[in-house]
Specification:
By secondary structure, the chain is of the alpha/beta class. The chain has a single domain, classed as TIM Barrel (Alpha-Beta Barrel). Helix content is 41%, strand content 13%. It has 15 helices and ten strands. A hairpin with a 4-residue loop joins strand 3 and strand 4. Helix 8 packs parallel to helix 10 and helix 10 packs parallel to helix 11. The longest helix has 22 residues. The protein is globular and about 60 Å long.
Length: 369
């Protein structure tokens, strides 16, 4: 069974159980560079239009060599756009957000739509050209090389809500959502249309899944009231998935959504999502058994291993115990791909990365196989 068949079975797109629970992981630049040097594999980076997504769609050759079962690709910065850092170390990306590097992730320090008030303010804003030269060069190469052996995910993370608050500013957007400001729904519609166009181009090139990414939860609760989500956002995601399904009825819609969002999972399924990621551990409503009991007939799960504390700081024994628990519960009867809940950062040692992969494969076998 190759990786493509393994993931299709885990996601219930092919009958029967996979030979083992598939494995996936993302690596920060430091870890990618380390393993690339150690294994003698050149590391290829695809600079995404939104910087932090770069590490989702880069180093595929390396990750496959280490044991990942999927290829993840997406749009990259246009050949026509040159990122230039100013003297203070900040830069403008293609969205015209002013960025700076934080301790771990990039940060937006100036928002191009910070003064948006009306629908007209959204209509005059220019998103990056989805057809700019070079936008999908890396995606085309990866699909051509790996399609027969691996499932290919097309990543459009920072999709609607997250892209909106990166353009406007989180505090302003949340207040204006509650006040039902004129520009809010047009902003979300524009973000959805832009990422729909990106997704459609990835589907045209042959990806098997479209990976959305928007965070609706904090460590304790939802960011916005459920009724606000249902009125302002839910219809847009459903429309996006409907359009993707029109383009390819077999496309697999995946949502990455951090935080305590169990309260929204029925809505998320109604929108058309089939895979839920990252099943963030340690937040209310996300106990593995609760997830499997309440939503196992609605979703396949992807993720669930804590990268905030367990992977960098836990013992090998604690990590092994957690992997066994997640596989035995979330993977029972299929419907699970094991992964850290987010990109592995430099606080996770290379040895721990290898131990994680080893333990996932050691304990991922199905007894019936």
């Amino acid at each position: 069974m190759n990786s493509r068949e393994r993931v299709l079975k885990a996601f219930k797109r092919l009958p029967g159980l996979p030979d083992r629970v598939p494995v996936q992981f993302d690596l920060c630049r430091q870890l990618s560079d380390h393993f690339g040097k150690e294994l003698g594999i050149p590391v290829s980076y695809t600079d995404n239009i939104y910087e932090d997504v770069t590490y989702r769609i880069s180093a595929n050759e390396l990750r496959l060599a280490l044991g990942s079962d999927v290829v993840i690709t997406g749009a990259c910065v246009s050949d026509n756009y040159r990122i230039v850092k100013d003297a203070d170390g900040t830069w403008l990306n293609e969205y015209k957000m002013r960025m700076r590097q934080g301790d771990i992730y990039v940060e937006v320090i100036d928002y191009p739509l910070a003064h948006a008030e009306t629908k007209a303010d959204i209509e005059v804003f220019q998103f990056p050209d989805p057809d700019a030269p070079g936008r999908f060069r890396d995606a085309e190469a990866l699909i051509a090389k790996y399609k027969s052996d691996y499932l290919i995910f097309g990543d459009i993370e920072v999709t609607v809500f997250s892209l909106g608050h990166q353009l406007v500013g989180m505090e302003k957007l949340l207040v204006d959502m509650m006040m039902e400001a004129e520009y809010v729904v047009p902003l979300f519609e524009a973000c959805a249309e832009y990422q729909t166009q990106t997704g459609l181009r990835l589907i045209e090139r042959g990806v098997d899944a479209i990976w959305f990414g928007d965070d609706f939860g904090t460590q304790l609760s939802l960011i916005i009231p459920p009724e606000t989500f249902r009125n302002q956002l839910k219809p847009l995601y459903k429309k996006m998935i409907d359009r993707f399904k029109e383009a390819n009825p077999h496309i697999i819609p995946i949502l990455h959504c951090d935080g305590a969002v169990a309260e929204l999972l029925d809505d998320i399924r109604e929108m058309g999502f089939e895979v839920f990621n990252p099943v963030q551990p340690g937040v209310p409503g996300h106990l593995p058994q609760d997830m499997k009991d309440s939503f196992g007939d609605k979703f396949s799960f992807w993720g669930a291993i804590d990268q905030q504390d367990l992977l960098p700081n836990g013992t090998d024994e604690e990590l092994e115990k957690d992997i066994i628990e997640k596989i035995s519960i979330l993977g029972k009867g299929g419907g699970y791909m094991i992964a850290p809940a987010h990109i592995l950062q430099a606080d996770v040692s290379p040895q721990r990365v290898l131990k994680f992969i080893e333990l996932c494969k050691k304990h991922g076998q199905y007894e019936c196989c």
